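Troubleshooting: if your tokenizer reports a length mismatch, compare your output against this known-good record of 329 residues.
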Amino acid sequence: MTGLVLTVALATVIGVSLGMLGGGGSILAVPLLIYVAGLPAKEAIATSLLVVGATSTVAVIPHLRAGRVRWRTGLIFGVAGMTGAYTGGRLAAYIPAGLLLTAFAVMMLATAAAMIRGRRGAESKPVPHELPVFRVVIDGVAVGLVTGLVGAGGGFLVVPALALLGGLSMPVAVGTSLVVIAMKSFAGFAGYLHTVTINWGLAAAVTLAAVAGSLIGAKLAGRIPADTLRKSFGWFVVVMGLFVLAQQLPAHLRTSPVLWAVTAATAVAAAAAIAVWRRRHHSEPVPSALQVRSTPQPGAPMNGAARRSAGPSVNGTTRHAINNQEATP
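Known-good structure output:
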């Protein structure tokens, strides 16, 4: 009974993080179901797909109201993703659980890296072009296959694909991705149902807790700096991903102090390298468009707009020199 209460409480926390971050929080559903609820790996992956699908369905509602969902692009990508996810769910029956969890741990680390790095080009304008349907279908099937196998939504893969292939702005890509994630998560769940027995009581409790938490998180969003929250949560996912990965090692390696010392040193070195790179990247001065536009090249003639931008500082002597420069062939 204590395990169930703790599982539901932590599922609520996962839902809150999902509501506040807009994605990524559900990646912790599989470790929660395995290490806290005590489910077998494949049953935990199947149950997590139900949780991800339900929370994504609820999370898309505010995006729908704001008009940030493109149905044609989302449905094409989503149907392709459903095909891949259902196939992945069926194939998982023939893959050892340890290999699935290793792949899931790698997925966790990739998701954490995307969260720490942040979304690039969030303010960029959409690039309208003809939707490359064949490429969207191929990408949708591939991403769906990953989702069906390891039980993660894969939002960090879907959002860039929608932005690049669909020509969607980042906010619209995020809203549309929730439709895609819900569709392929439910399809992957259906694929697992052929070979896995679901604890429906636990699945319903975790799903309802995660959905309720996402609604709470949505109301709390904005009260904590999103960038700080996302990066902190990303580093937590890194720790959990390394933990899941370590659990797949042989027992004598899991307890080796040398292995953990090397792992800790590598993690510290990676964090330091990222911090140094980010500091250098942000410290480089970037000339504004106004500065570039208003700074003439040596020997280049000044047109009327440049002359007007010089304003009162251009005296008669300078203006005479400019006129002479423009008259010179």
